[in-house]
Amino acid sequence: MCWLMLMVFFVLSGCVSMAPSYQQPPLPVAIAYPDAQPAEGIGAGQGTIATGWRDYFTDPRLQTLIKLALDNNRDLRTAVLRVEEARAVYGIQRAEQFPTIGVQAGVDRSRIPADLSPTGKPVEGSQYQVALGLASWEIDFWGRVRNLKESALEKYLSTDAARRAASISLVAQVANSYLSLREVDERLVLARRTIASRAESLRIFTRRVQVGSTSRLDLTQVQTLMTQAQALGAQLEQLRAAQAQALILLIGTPVDLPARPDHLGEQVVLVELRAGLPSDLLVQRPDIVAAEHQLRAANANIGAARAAFFPNVTLTGSFGTASAELEGLFASGSHAWVFSPSISLPLFDGGRRRNNLSLTEARRDLAVAAYEKTVQSAFRDVAEALSARHWLTEQLVIAQTAQAVQTERARLSQLRYDNGAATFLEVLDAQRELLAAEQQVVQIRRALLTSRVGLYAALGGGAMDFASLPVRALPNSTRGTLNP
After folding, report:
1. Tens digit of pLDDT for each residue in 428-455?
2. Which pLDDT score, from 0 to 100, does residue 126 have?
3. pLDDT score, position 103
4. Which tens digit of pLDDT belongs to each residue from 223-266?
5. In a shared domain, residues 223 and 119
């Protein structure tokens, strides 16, 4: 009979939930991005999130570095371990829904002195028992335990979404650091070429001064050009060393990063992306998904706090056999059982439950604000990346035109000087401006590629790539899959 009652209680438990119905907050941003221009290639929505980083970043060297970073980066490893931690917490809370049943066996030996014995003689006795026991188990009539389990599950899913967001961020950081290193390599090539050219000019002018065909003023101007180029080269060498170490830290393992003298062009990133609509971010950006799971967890905690105002029903019991003699432990008639249901409801707690409910409601409101802020930040990231892509494209065209003009100016200035129609100061200015223009073109080209990397990350691109990292399977639950 007690086991039948236990089954009835088990079926009835969890039939009621005191949690408020969840409603997704309205989108706190505009319905479209500014500066969103149609682009050929991957469309909005599923296309962007399904575009893996191997498809987006086509440079083989960059692909190798990203793979190494995903395998060795310590921050990402920490994020994965936090998922494991949250999974264990969820498993513990989920187990609270089920009774704890165990087998216990024991023997008691006792002696009653004569002055306490009803017979006036000392009495010695033994009691042997074996029982299947039910520890104190809360019958979840009001959904308190179930809401706590739901909260733990949502926090688990939030942690996993945060892990995916960290993976996307790491890919973008490695790509940007690699682009910066490539930019410095190309600028170094230009600087070294300029240093070699000016070294030759210095040799020629030194010889001219020696034979008296030019003035020492011209020689000092050539020396000025030389020292400026050498200073730039030294600065770029220092910058490259620092940039290489930053990339190695991201990768998480020592790696050889030889200089790449080739042109930093479109071969690094080829795929064009469309921005889609801001509403797409709600499912594409893992950080938004994580914030929404945190909001759902806070919503479930309200249900657990409300349930504390209702009676708490617990069951304790055992069923087994007991005997005064060991050989009679399993004899007929030795069955023993205990069934102890209890109900409790605090009548006065100094406002603890009321304040606990207020606390959970305040935390739910904080989670709403955090969710809205995350959406707004994501919108800003996409808008800034779109704006950068648009205006940096125009800046690159202008800078390339300026470089062509400065190249022609330097050529004409040198011709004028060689024919005695201009002073060397004119050549000095032209060559200085040409070097600055060459450096600026490389910098803007890298910034444009960086904006495309930023757009990819801002749109949640490649999130599906990180849905199957080595995290143990989710226990059976009403929510189903790990990656909703």
Report:
1. 888 889 989 999 999 999 999 999 899 8
2. 79
3. 86
4. 988 999 899 999 999 999 999 999 999 999 999 988 877 777 65
5. no
**Is residue 381 pLDDT above 60, yes or no?**
yes
| One-letter amino acid for residue 349 of the chain | D
Return the axis-axis angle of helices 424-458 and 352-418, rounded to nearest 10°: 150
> Tokens representing 308?
């504390």
- DSSP code for 151: H
pLDDT for 481 equals 36
Cα-Cα-Cα-Cα torsion 151, 154, 155, 157, nearest 10 degrees, comes to: 160
Enumerate residues 6+ apart whose C-beta is below 8 A from 98: none
**323 and 254, same structural domain?**
no
Q: How far apart are CA 96 and CA 256, in angstroms?
A: 52
> In angstroms, what CA-CA distances link 433 with 237, 396, 441?
21, 17, 12
Are residue 133 and residue 148 in the same domain, yes or no? no
Range of the domain at 33: 16-97+142-310+352-466
- What is the spatial distance between Cα 126 and Cα 120, in angstroms, rounded to a whole number? 19
Query: Measured between alpha carbons, how far is 389 from 114 in angstroms, rounded to an integer?
Result: 98
The token pair that represents 72 in the structure block = 């060795």
Alpha helices, DSSP H, located in 212-285: 216-251, 281-284
Residue 390, Ramachandran bin (φ over 0: left; ψ between -120 and 50: alpha; else beta)? alpha
Q: Any residues with CB less than 8 A from the CB of 255 and at least 6 apart, and which?
A: 65, 68, 248
Asked if residue 11 is part of any domain, the answer here is: no
pLDDT digit string, tens, across residues 136-192: 788 888 888 899 999 999 999 999 999 999 999 999 999 999 999 999 999 999 899
Is pLDDT larger for residue 483 or for residue 479?
479
**For residues 314 and 340, what is the distance between their CA atoms, to the nearest angstrom?**
8
Other CB atoms within a 10 A radius of the CB of residue 309 amount to 14
Same domain, 71 and 125: no
Structure tokens at 215: 């003035």
pLDDT of 89 reads: 92
pTM: 0.83
Beta bridge partners of 130: 105, 321
Give the DSSP letter string of 291-317: HHHHHHHHHHHHHHHHHTTS-EEEEEE
- Is residue 3, in this structure, part of any structural domain at all? no
